[in-house]
Structures are given as C-alpha cells and as structure tokens.
Amino acid sequence: MIPKARGKRKRSRLALIEEMWGYLYISPWLLGFFLFSLGPMVLSFYFSLTKYEFPLKPRWIGFGNYVKAFTKDDLFYLSLANTAYYVFISVPLGLAASLFLALLLDRNIWGRALWRTVYYLPSIVPMVSSTFLFMYLFQPDYGFINGWLWKLFHIQGPGWFNSKEWVKPTFILLSLWGAGGSRCIIFLAGLQNIPTELYEAAEVDGAGRLRKFFHITLPMLSPTIFFNLVTGIIGAFKIFGPAYVATAGGPAYGSYFYVLHLFNNAFSFWNMGYASALAWILFIIILIFTLIQFQVAKSWVYYESATMA
C-alpha cells in the first residue's frame, strides 16, 4: 500500500507542476484579458451607473443614464435608426459580394493566385486612405463617378457624401470595397472543403450549375455563411471610422451612426457616464441579435458531423 500512496503523491505533484507551467504560459494572455478587457468592462459598467463628467468625480445615479437614453435623447434613436439601416443593407450585400468573388476565385483559371492577391489588396488599405479615396471618387462636382455618369449617360449624379438621402448608401458602397478580404478568404476555405464527389454525383444525375449551387454549395457552405453573418453584423453595428473621417455624422445627421454618438458624448462632451451606458446598450443589442441568429441557425445551418452523429 505504501508504494501506491507514494505513486499517487508523485503523480499529483507532477500534475500540479504541469498545471503551474500551463498557467505560466498563458499568464501574458490572462494579464492582458484582465487589464485590457474584463477590467475596463467592469469599470465602464460602474461608470454607466454614475454621472461622470470628466474630470469631475463620478456620482452614483443608478440607471439614470439608461432612462435618459430611452426617454430624453432624440439622437439616440436617430443614430440607432441610421445604424440599423446600414447593418441590414450592408451585411447581406457584403456577404453576397464576398461569396460571388470567392466562387470566381475558386475556379481553376490562369493566374488564380495573382487575382486572389489583387482582390485582397483593398481590404488591407488603411481605413482613412480608403475613405479619402471614396470622398474623391464620389465628390459631386469633380468626382470620377459623377463625371463618367455625365459623359456616358448624360445623368447628373447625386450628392453622395454631401446628400442626406445618399450618404448612407455611399457608406454601404464603401463597405463593399473590402469584399475580397477576410470574408472572401473564409468563403474560399469553405468552398474547398466541399467534397468533389457531391458535384460529380450531381452531374451524373444531370444537375446543372444552378441546381448544384442551391442544393450542394449553399447547404454545405451554410456554417461559413453563418460565421460571416454573425461577425459581419457585429462589425457593421460598430461602424465609426469612415463616418467620422468623411462626414462627422452629416449632412443633417444623415450618417450619424450609433458609435459616433457614443464617441461624441465621451470625447466631445466628456460625459463618460452616459457614454458608458450607450456602450452597454450597444453590447446588449449585439448580444440579442447574436443569440437570435444562433436560435434561427438551427433551421438552416447544415453540419455534416452532426448529421453523421
């Protein structure tokens, strides 16, 4: 019995040493998580329950900031409506454009690696540079787009960034600039994981391209579509940079998106407490949308491993 007890003690000591080494290896990530993620989140939630106008000291007001957002702040609903418009149009269009490019770049054509590089390049252009490029292209008076619309079709182009009606569609076009980026690569990876035997069997049965696309490609690609949909909606809700650089929310609040409203309250009015409440409201909105998507996904996302199990 004594040798067995010694063996158990030795194994437990080795397990403890391995556990300590494991925590040591992940300690940089843990330190970063607690200092730069969890810590600021807890602190911002506390600030959201206070009246904190920097540099004055925070004063506890409970849920007063949340009540203010829903009952007294007209720009809250305006910015939320502008953001919802952008999200529900830009995300489906972006998914469709990325999937279309992925289908093209998945074909066995000459110079495929070169074409993939060319289509990926716009996604690595800095956001500020891309925004200034679009501001030049879509300038109403001397911009490239309106110039060619007049030369080719004798059509007077719209005001684009300078028009309240056209500013959000222009930002949606700007979001498509990076359609060949990470989402396209993820779609490419998903396409290459589809077994070729399925297409060969469909060809034997006489299925055409459209039938193979809708009955093989889309169902097998549904987990990838779902992933890009979730991440795309989260990213679209957080639109800030292009609007801040190009229009600062104008004209006439036409591009006054939610995060821009949050930013102005935090760093223009220094109302950190109210800005923290706006951040937590956005977090809850995104969380609700994400949970809804996970519930709805059960009816249309196909997982081959789950079917085999």
How would you summarize this macromolecular structure in one to three sentences?
The protein is mainly alpha-helical and 309 residues long. Helices cover 73% and strands 1% of the residues.
Q: What characteristics describe this protein?
A:
309 residues; mainly alpha; two-stranded antiparallel ribbon
Q: How would you describe what is shown here?
A:
With 309 residues, the protein is mostly helical. The protein has 2 domains: 2-48; 68-308, MetI-like fold, CATH 1.10.3720.10. Helices cover 73% and strands 1% of the residues. The protein contains 14 helices and 2 strands; from the N terminus they run H-E-E-H-H-H-H-H-H-H-H-H-H-H-H-H. The longest helix is centred in the N-terminal third of the chain and has 47 residues, at 2-48. The protein is globular and about 70 Å long.
**Classification by helices and strands:** mainly alpha
Estimated share of beta-strand residues: under 5%
Number of domains: 2
Instruction: Please state the second-level CATH architecture of the largest domain.
Output: Orthogonal Bundle
Number of strands: 2
CATH class of the largest domain: Mainly Alpha
Shape: globular
* The CATH fourth-level homologous superfamily of the largest domain: MetI-like
Biggest sheet, spatial arrangement of strands: 1-2
CATH topology of the largest domain: MetI-like fold
- CA-based gyration radius: 26 Å
- Please trace the helix and strand order, writing H or E for each element: HEEHHHHHHHHHHHHH
Euclidean distance between termini CA atoms: 44 Å
Main sheet: strands, sense, barrel: 2 strands, antiparallel
Q: What value does the average pLDDT take?
A: 91
The DSSP helix count reads 14
Helix percent band: over 70%
**Low-confidence runs (pLDDT<50, min 5 residues)?**
none
